[in-house]
Amino acid sequence: MTDIAISPHFITTPSGARLRTATFPAPAGVAARGVCVLLHGQTEFIGKYGEVIGELQARGFIVATFDWRGQGMSSRALPDSRKSHISDFREYDEDLATFMDEIVRPLGCPPPLALAHSMGGNILIRTLHDKPGAFKAAVLSAPMLAVSTRGYPRWFANGITALMNGAGRADGWVLGMEGRDPLNMKFEDNLVTSDRNRFARQQALIAKQPEIRLAGPTWGWLKAASASMATVMAPGYAEAIETPVLLCGAGKDRIVLTPPARDFTHRLPHGTYVEFEDSEHEILMENDSIRERFWKAFDDFVAAQGI
Questions:
Q1: Which one, of 6, 73, 66, lies nearest residue 213 by Cα?
Q2: How far apart are CA 237 and CA 125, in angstroms?
Q3: pLDDT class for 149, splitting at 50, 70, 90?
Q4: Tens-digit pLDDT profile for residues 237-286
Q5: In the predicted model, what is the mean pLDDT of residues 44-52?
Q6: What is the spatial distance between Cα 37 and Cα 124, in angstroms, rounded to a whole number?
Q7: Contact between 145 and 229 (Cβ < 8 Å)
Q8: Which CATH superfamily hosts domain 9-304?
Q9: Helix, strand, coil shares of the chain as percentages rounded to 5?
Q10: Exposure string over 234-264, b if 16+ CB within 10 A, otherwise e
Q11: pLDDT digits (tens, 9 = 90+) for 77-96
Q12: What are phi and psi of 169, to 5 degrees?
């Protein structure tokens, strides 16, 4: 687990969002396999994926990645930069489209492979549906297709989200998020990984650059996320995606719901499902045993696609 040197290149979307992007070449002496577009989950940032980037490079991939608007070192929507806020997931669609046009396509490779986690998986699915052929294949890690309501009835969670947005509180904190500072998070309180060392590495990165941290979403973000999840889970949506997809579920996920992701895979014309029954939400940040099994599934899937 090593830190990576990031040489950022900033791009601006048509709506004015400023995105931090970075590319990492395949090492000399390794057979080139094209580009892998790496898409992060909510609250994440480029540096967190240093280990993953290195593993992709060692497999011969040029890695292209970026911070979504409102995350990492990309521009934030609100004065309180700890809030994760967006009005509509079409804004994220614009981020990915701009990134593909300005960073990925100039690399001159065939359609790339995509590796996306959680929220990044949701956004990628939207592109796979709307832009057939944009990617040769996709690997999804615990995609955000349905989220846990943490013990609250779903009707209550949906109702209070609608109420707060209707009351003009779209930019306000979701309940319990304001007091959540990642700088003070203890390993015992985290819900995403069983690996103490990888958790500590992430915390060190945040402590080094506190401005990259996010405490949690706003009611507006939650409304937009709920709408996007409803869109991608609608009848006929998965069935229309022709791109080969490997979907990896986490058996101990406490952030997103695994059964809907499993069912979604079965609806895909070219879907493959693998579940890591002992994994928390962040499969790519988990312990060595889980990660070794993930990379075995990844390698087998990618080879089957002729990549």
A1: 73
A2: 9
A3: confident
A4: 999 999 999 999 999 999 999 999 999 999 999 999 999 999 999 999 99
A5: 97
A6: 10
A7: yes
A8: Alpha/Beta hydrolase fold, catalytic domain (3.40.50.1820)
A9: 40, 15, 40
A10: eeebbeebebbbbbbbbeebebbbbebbeeb
A11: 999 999 999 999 999 999 99
A12: -105, 25
Residue type, 235: P
Q: Rounded CA gap, 218 and 252, in Å? A: 26
Q: Where are the domains of the chain?
A: 9-304
State the Rg of the chain over Cα.
18
Provide the pLDDT confidence category of residue 181 given band limits of 50, 70 and 90.
Answer: confident
Strands 62-66 and 35-39: parallel
Structure confidence at residue 2 as a pLDDT band (50, 70, 90): low
76: Cβ contacts below 8 Å, ≥ 6 apart: 69, 70, 83, 85
Q: Which residues, 6 or more positions from 176, have their beta carbon under 8 angstroms from its beta carbon?
A: 216
Backbone angles phi and psi of 218, in degrees to 5: -95, 170
Q: Whole-angstrom Cα distance, residue 90 to residue 94? A: 6
pTM above 0.85, yes or no: yes
Q: Which residues contact 167 (CB under 8 A, 6 or more apart)?
A: none
Q: What value, to the nearest 5°, has the Cα angle with vertex 204 and ends 282 and 85?
A: 60
Token digits for 186?
């203890």
Token duo for residue 155: 């009707």
For 179, the token pair is 């007091």
Q: Is the pLDDT of residue 210 over 80?
A: yes
Q: CB-based burial of residue 156 (10 Å sphere; 0-12 exposed, 13-18 middle, 19+ buried)?
A: exposed
Residue labelled with tokens 């992701």: 261
Nearest 5°: the CA angle 116, 67, 264 is: 25
